[in-house]
Every structure is written in structure tokens, then in C-alpha cells.
Amino acid sequence: MRRLTRFLSSAGLAIWLLTFVGLWSMTATAVPQGGSSDPLVAAWASKYPLIEPLVRMVGLHQAFTSPAFAVCVLVLTVSTALCAWQRTRAAMHRGRALGQAALAGQQAVIESHDLEILCDPALSGPDVLSIASKTLGELDIRTKRRGDVLSAVSPSWAVVGSPLFHWALLALIVVIFTSNLQRSEGLMGVAVGQTKSDAPASYGLLRTGPLHDWRGVRRSIRVDAFDPKYQTGGTKRGPTPTVSVLDGEGRVLKTQRVYPNMMLKTGSLAIYPSAYGLAATISIANRSGVETGRSVQLVDFSDTAEDGTVSLGSLVVGDRAGNAELQVSTTVPLERVGGQPEKTLPEKPTARIVVTSPDGEPLVDRVVSPGEEVALPTGDSLRVESVDYYARLQVVDDWSTIPLYACLAAATIGLTIAFVARQQIVLATVIDGPEGARLAVRLRLWRNESSSRSAVERELARALGQVEKGSAS
Fold it and tell me: How far is 419 from 163, CA to CA, in rounded Å?
């Protein structure tokens, strides 16, 4: 068990594990994450058919939840916990020693010291302490006089650096691993004025950890406005949506413009801008003119399409039994400059409505303006309500942001203390005897010292005019 503990807490093992985690994580950034049905994963697999079997076998498409990564992180967690505990025990021992040394009087130093130096008989006790203080100062050990004792004792907090760093590192590992199991991240297209619930059906692309639970999510996301050429502070921010997050009862939690380096953050939710396009809102009415449905059709820009846009989906019109009767596809014809479509909302926007039968036979192909209707072969009518922008938002639900920053801050503080703070006990007092005055010194130099025990002994013996007599404990 001791051998296993030594192995698990060894620095070599930790370095190898950290190296593996770093290389694995960097490799994972070059491989799309998701299941085999994910469009990005499928496209990557068809592009790299030779290495795809190996990538799938080792689990790189689910890099941060794969068995190999999980085992590595588990061993690293155990290793870090053992290191943290060992350093905590050592720090507790040193902390008690520092606390006791800070209160030690002359008698305590006389009863327990590490070395004695015989002084020149011509020197009095105060002279010995004065010379010793000056000599130690030249060795960058600054002492204070407490009665008949010279003291250079580090504060007790000086020992917390290494344990704090290791416990913070352990907490960081646990937070990262747990958050990857629970986080969700996806792309959601929301038209101006539209509100979508934060639910799987609202996403075009979605990745969730195996422990993510949608049952506790009660919020929605709305795009209030869209500025294709937003500027602030003299800086062009580009296409910028104004996004609101609403709670389960429809109350606004936060409203904010979202552009690069300016995410919307509320609770565990973070929203980033991804892309933008156009959206056509379409309603369908029956023969009596009663509206039976409404849909927002998202449209992306295209350099090769005839209209300059392509539809991201289609609207299916069914009969009363739910069978598909018609399929409606929508695009937005763009204005052209120099033969190239302008990727912006036209001054007078229109929508091109293409209606086909379930087997793909074209039935209707018309360009209509907002407010106009198109008669459908079923006797129903289709009306274009509006044409506007839509924003594609990257929505991340991850509770770990604040804990991660807290862990990093704690680790930085611990590492700074470990590298900067000294851990030392230097106590000195004079013992009078028949042979003359002797300087008794208790000496512990643990960390970040500018000198050594041998140098302290040598310089004190030289300064006090005699060679070292011996040592006592």
C-alpha cells in the first residue's frame, strides 16, 4: 500500500497524466464532438475515412466523456488528492512549529537549540546579539529583538501556499470533469421578435453531457432587435443582435447586445453570437380565412444560389389526418451589387414561395411581399407576414464558470505564496557560562531561503570572534 501511495503521489506520474490530458484536449479541438448522427461528425468522417475508425475507437468524438479520458482524470484526481494531503500534513506540522517559535522566550531557546557558538570574551550579551543581528541581516535574514531573543520567524500563513495550490488544482479537475458531464452547448436560430424556449427542439445543433437534465430548465430566449452594422466607442462590432433571456413565467432576466467578446451571461447560461441570416414569418389560413398555423422560416446567405439565399428547412402542410399534402420552401431574393448578392436585408424585402407535392412535383413558385397571400392547391392560403433578420446564437449552459475562476484564483494565490513566502525559524539568545558568552541558535530553513545552515554557522562564528564550539539539540 505504501508503494502504491508513493507511486500515485509521485511528481513523475502527475506530469505524465497532465501531459496526456493536455495532448488529448488539444487533439479533441481538431475533431468535431458529438454522436455519429451529428452532421459535423458525419462530414468529418467522410472527409477522413482512413483515421475515422481509430478516432471513433478511442472515443475522440466524445473526448471529454470517453473511458480513456475518464480513467486518466480519475487517476490524476487521486494523485493530486494524495499530494495535497501530504503537503497539508507537512504544512500543519510546520505551522505549529512556527506558531510555537513566534512565542518562544529565552528559556525555550536555551532548552532547545540547534547550535552554539562561543563568543569573544570581550563581548557582552547585548553586543553579541547586536553583532548576530547585523550578521544575519547581511545574509538576508532580518531579525527582531524580543527581550533577550533575536527572532526571524515566518508567519504561519507562509506554509499554506503548496497545500492551497494542490487543493485548488484538485477542485479544478473535479469542476472541469463534472461540468463536462452536465453542460449543454448548441446553436439556436432566433428571428427578430421571436421567442424560443430553451429546450432541445429549439436547437439546430446540440451537444449535451450524459448527466445534463432538461427538467430543471425553465427559460426562453428572445431576439428583440438586430443591427447589421453596430458601432460602439468608434469600433465596428458588426452584425449585432439584442438578446433577452426570460424566466419560466416570461419575466425578462437580462437584455443585452451580443457581439464578439461581449457575451450575455446570466446564471449558468452564456450566449455568444455565431452567425446571422434572414427569416420569413408565414401564416396559413383555411378556406374560411381562419389562421390555422404560423411558422418562421430561417434563410441563410449563399454565394451560389439563384436568389442569394437558401432555406434551412421547409414547412409541411398536412391534412386533418396529419398526412403531408404539401411542402413549402422559402427563400429571400437579395439585391445584387457588381453581380454579387448583398448579404443584408433588402430595402423592400420579398419572399420566394415554392410549393411542391410530397413526391417533389412543383406546384407554386411565386415572389410575394409581406402582407400578400398565395393560394395553395388544397384550398388553404399562405400569407407572408414579415421578412427580417435572424440571429444564430451559441447557447452554453455551464455552471462551472464562477467555480473555475475561483479555483484558478486560489491556485494562483497558492503558487505565489509557495514561490515567494519564506518558511524559516531563526531564534538566537545568549547563554552566559564560565567559558564566556555563547550564542544559542535554533535554526530551520525550509523554503525560499537566500542562505543555508552552514553559511549561517560560518558567518556567525567569524563575526563573533571564535570558531564554532559544537551543537546541541
Answer: 13
Residue 281 pLDDT exceeds 90: yes
- Options 1.10.101, 3.40.30, 3.40.50, 3.30.310; CATH for 104-154+422-470 is 3.30.310
Neighbours of 94 (CB within 10 A): 19
Query: 223-249: per-residue pLDDT in tens?
Result: 999 999 999 888 999 999 999 999 999
β-partners of residue 291 are 285
CA-to-CA distance for 144 and 55, rounded, in angstroms? 64
Determine the Cα–Cα distance for residues 271 and 392; give it in Å rounded to an integer: 10
Which regions of 302-433 does DSSP assign to beta strands (E)?
Answer: 309-311, 314-318, 324-331, 336-337, 340-341, 351-356, 362-368, 373-375, 381-397, 423-433
- Answer whether residue 192 shows pLDDT above 60: yes
> Average pLDDT for residues 416-425, to the nearest whole number?
94
Q: Of 101, 126, 449, which Cα lies nearest the Cα of 134?
A: 126
Interatomic CA distance for residues 414 and 418, integer angstroms: 6
CA distance 199 to 251: 17
Max Cα-Cα span within the chain = 123
Q: Which three cell numbers stand for residue 95?
A: 505551522
Closest C-alpha among 264, 261, 218 to residue 243: 264
Kindly report the average pLDDT of the chain as a whole number.
89
Nine-digit cell at 188? 439556436
Cell of 1: 500500500
429: cell is 539568545
Spatial CB neighbours of 239, under 8 Å, sequence gap ≥ 6:
226, 227, 228, 229, 230, 273, 276, 389, 391
Q: How many residues does the chain have?
A: 473
Single-letter code of the amino acid located at 394: Q
Domain ranges of the chain: 2-86, 104-154+422-470
pLDDT per position as a tens digit, 362-378: 899 999 999 999 998 88
Q: What's the rounded Cα separation, in Å, for the pair 400 and 406? A: 10
